[in-house]
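Table 4 source record.
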Amino acid sequence: MKKILFAVWILCLIFLSGCGKKENNDYSAEADNDSNVIFKNTEYNPDTDYQFFSSNYSEVTASDSIYYFRNYEFVYYWDKKSGQSGALCAKPDCSHDSESCDAYIGFAGNLTYNDGSLYYLEIDEDDASGSFKYTLHSRLPDGSVDKEISELMSSSNELPVIPETMIHRGYLYYVIYDGTMENSTSRLCRVPLDGSEDSKELFAYKGVDADIYQLKGYGDGVMFIVSEAADKDLEKHIFNIYYYDTASGQTELVVDDTRGDYVVINDKVYYTMPDAVYCYDVFAKNKEKFYETNALVYMSYDGVNLYLDDSYSKMIDDKENEGNTITVLSLDGEIIDSINNDNSQEFCFGDSEYLILGYDEDFKLLDKKYIGKDKTEWITWEIPHLWENMQ
């Protein structure tokens, strides 16, 4: 499931599409190039703020001391200090092979740790309508005490596609999609993590193959990409980065004519184009080329360095069997390290402590203290395939 969802996200970033100006749209925000965005309260709080992992479909998340990973129907852990790992279940003598195991969460996704709790979406099919509903749940960090928080707004999807989500400062932000490809509406919604309110729609965008994705919390708001086809032939697409301010309820265009991933650092938006990574200063309102890539890349920032992963361009060029490379950059644009991955496993950029390699099978972790050093030591995190023994 995870690979399917990640592929859907990939398709949203096809760089062969062209660009164009957005026609008037009843659902659009004020969209002019003189952005009036004012970022507020941007100091990062690791307990409550958005976690910067590889993508919003990543099933790796972290507390101060533990990494958590959802694979199929179970949740696993890896202790950063002791290196111990296993199923996230504290029940004595549990065989971890049934739904009674605390590590079992069933058909679910979007595992995220935030402010002392684990959150995930449970997916159920409505037998009467045939549609799917998504319910936000929480658990304690040891996997126990499952709590149902709130049911998300529904969409017209006929397939159980897990919506993109992001947790930031007390809210789960998520996207739902309605309509057909030729006449679609994507909606950005949110619901409080304490369940004190129902879901609320914040912003909607209507168009041909319209989509909202790459949600990233920053300050008191949320950044996201809006894409749509320039015409009904679906041969060209438009990609723009927006910012929703929670205080004012306003949404503004920040960067237009983008193609792929982005990160926000110190009130600057770093975004990828087919030739380079560019940097747009929101307050100075100027753009400059930051680092030449000659290809689209995935991006992440861990609070110290910027990470660029070239696996997207390898996929487009049908060269996935060649492996991929992570380039580690300082914010001055200097290359600190280049990390090769010859076995074509996927990178999860991780937090400030570890770089993580792998998803469906066993993981490898690289302590980031080795980045930029001659010595490199990978740690193996073995994932037991508990779903194979379900009773």
